[in-house]
Amino acid sequence: MDYLRCYWLEKDFFPEIYKYFHEEKTLTSEQFFSIIAWKSIRPRKRIKQGLLATSKSLNDAVKDLAVEIYSAKEKEQKLEIVLKRPGFQLAMASAILTVLYPDIFTVYDIRVRGQLRDPENYERIYPDITYTADRIRRYFDEYIPQVLQRGREISNNPKLSLRDCDRLLWAKSWYEDLKEFLAK
Questions:
Q1: Within 10 Å of residue 127's Cβ, how many Cβ atoms?
Q2: Which residues contact residue 174 at a Cβ distance below 8 angstroms, ignoring those fewer than 6 apart?
Q3: Which pTM was predicted?
Q4: In DSSP terms, which residues pair with 118 in a beta bridge?
Q5: Exposure of 142 by Cβ count < 10 A (0-12 exposed, 13-18 middle, 19+ buried)?
Q6: Residue-wise pLDDT tens for the chain (184 aa)?
Q7: How many CB atoms lie within 10 A of CB 97?
Q8: 3-state per-residue secondary structure call for the chain
Q9: Alpha carbon distances (Å) from 118 to 113, 126, 127, 150
């Protein structure tokens, strides 16, 4: 086992996961839960229990979910498939799909949302869509376009990828928090 590839998950391990998923049309439990741990380690037990509620083995549950995601034709269907599983919320579902489809999904993240401020009213932040009935539509129609627009605006690069816009906004939030902490 090359443990260093697990240190930089997004750089070294996620490309392997992406390739495996698109070749085999499924995922292993190790691959799946590495994405979960990357996004947030806190819900992993809840997600594991939710998957086990629908299957006798975790490996079978992960495999079935991955096959169903891969088989879905529309991006909205892919997101709905994950969100319907017990224990999943929009942030985690979008993280999983971001690794599997980085050109059409991005992580629904509180740091990124904080960077999507209305320029006319700096205090107004993009609304939370996690628990709304139309969250899938709003994720694609509102959140993703705003991530692209704001990331490209800040970087001054009109061709910046969705994934890099997400990274830029997350990093900007992280850096601003650091500066604020040091200033106090």
A1: 12
A2: 111
A3: 0.89
A4: 121
A5: middle
A6: 777 777 778 888 899 999 999 999 999 999 999 999 999 878 888 899 989 988 889 999 999 999 999 999 999 999 999 999 988 999 999 999 999 999 999 999 989 998 987 656 555 566 678 777 899 999 999 999 999 999 999 999 999 999 999 999 999 999 999 999 999 8
A7: 21
A8: CCCHHHHCHHHHHHHHHHHHHHHHCCCCHHHHHHHHHHHCCCCHHHHHHHHHCCCCCHHHHHHHHHHHHHHCCCHHHHHHHHHCCCCCCHHHHHHHHHHHCCCCCCCCCHHHHHHCEECCEEEEECCCCCCCCCHHHHHHHHHHHHHHHHHHHHHCCCCCCHHHHHHHHHHHHHHHHHHHHHHC
A9: 11, 8, 11, 10
Residue keyed to tokens 């979910």:
65
